[in-house]
Structures are given as structure tokens and as C-alpha cells.
Amino acid sequence: xxxxxxICGLSTHETLDVALDSGADMVGFVxxxxxxxxxxxxxxxxxxxxxxxxxxxxALTVDADDATLAGIMEALAPDLLQLHGHETPARLRExxxxxxxxxxxxxxVQTSADLxxxxxxxxxxxxxxxxxxxxxDATRPGGLGAVFDWHVLENLDLKLPFMVxxxxxxxxxxxxxxxxxxxxxxxxxxxxxxxxxxDPDMIRAFIRAARSTELxxxxxxxxxxxxxxxxxxxxxxxHSRLSPNSREEPLTPTLSPQGRGEGxxxxxxx
Length: 270
Hints:
α1 packs parallel to α7 and α2 packs across α3. This protein has helices at residues 13-21, 41-51, 66-76, 89-99, 118-122, 173-180, 200-211; strands at 4-7, 26-31, 56-61, 80-83, 103-109, 127-132, 162-165, 184-187, 192-194, 197-198. By secondary structure, the chain is of the alpha/beta class. Residues 218-270 have low confidence and may be disordered. An eight-stranded parallel barrel has the order 1-2-3-4-5-6-7-8, surrounded by six helices. The protein has a two-stranded antiparallel sheet with strand order 9-10.
């Protein structure tokens, strides 16, 4: 199975086009004012329209309320909500029921003890994103360029699709995938020449490096949860299925990386 590649924190048409032309499967947009990658809704609307079905659109939020999420939904029309705050499993369930979109929950990781809450989230999230734990004095939970010990996930027995992020760049993405067996990778600061400023060559480099990675039979990033494939209220809504293997009509855009061009150059960290 091909690795799923997500470029997060995009904020300009130029870098968005580079990510799409280079074969990114998912493009992420940040809606969190303390982040240097935060987008106003008007900008997000224009970027979202420019995607034109070439990749899935992920909206990254941090402890957002319903009104904020509704505004993002109207402006971006995302395919996936990425929750990066302290949202509880109950809050995930509320968001899925209200907005009828798949949800990816980011979990901060430093040691194996940080996986204690995983079962509760795995029971409701559609996928998990493992990210490096931010320092206590950090003003945002991710995009800091920090790497966590990937060996924490080495023997993870998780039936839910998952991705990894945190400090990824073109030089280490292959090791991250080999150790964690993740089905997808997510990068932000690792393709930036300055904080919040994406570099086209680094985007190309990262995607090229990720595409050259041989996956050791990873869990798929996409695919419906087997325990809720027929329950739109608890799982994904019929119009928002992300599985390239679904027997039903797939979501547009199709999220399988097959058929997309490659691309990339060198990168640094998320």
C-alpha cells in the first residue's frame, strides 16, 4: 500500500499548487490564531477552492467551539477535521454527529505512558495522528519541529488507521515510517525556510522522499472503521468516506495516492 502524504499549514496559492502538483494526498489548513500558519476564513475559502479535488482538505483546529467549526466548514468545505487540542472522546463524538465529517485526533507523544488514553479515542476517532508533545511553555500544540521517540509506536497494536508527525523532514521520513509502520506522514515546519513560510523545493523534497519509502505492511491511513461502516451517526457520513477501497462511490477527491505525480526535494521538520 502506498504511503499517504499530508502537507500541513499551507497559506499561499504558490505553495498549495506545489504540494498538489508534487502529489500530496492531503493538504492541511490551520485555524488557530496563536499559530503563524493561521488562516482567516476569506483566505481559506480561496485556497480551498483552488484545490479542485486534487487532494483531501484537512482543517486543523484546537479546542474549537461549534460556531468556529461552522465557519470553517462554510469557508473551506473540508474533507476531514483534525483536532489538535484537549478535545475529549465525548467532544469528538459531538463534532462528528453535528458536522458529519471524519475526525482525525492528534495525540501528543513523548513516552509510552502517553498512549494510555488511546483506547478511548480509538473508539470514536476515524484516524489518529501521533505528534511530538509540545514543551509546557509552548503557545501551540504542534508545528514546532520536535521529534518524538518513534520506537514508542514500534509494537503498537492499533486497528485504527494512523499517521505520524513531529519533526519530520526529507532526511528522516523513511526511518519514521520504517519504525512506526504508519500508513501516513504529516509535515509542516519540516518544509519551511522560516517559521510559517513554506519552501517549494522543500515540499517537493519531502514528498519525493516519502514516495520512495517502502512500507512494511502498514495500517492504512484511509478505510472505514469496520465496527461502524453502516452507522453514519457514529462513523463517517455517506458523503465523506475517505477509503480508496470502499465499495461505495468514493469521495471526491479520491484519496489514494495512486495515479498522482511524485515530487519533492529536501525538508526539515514538522
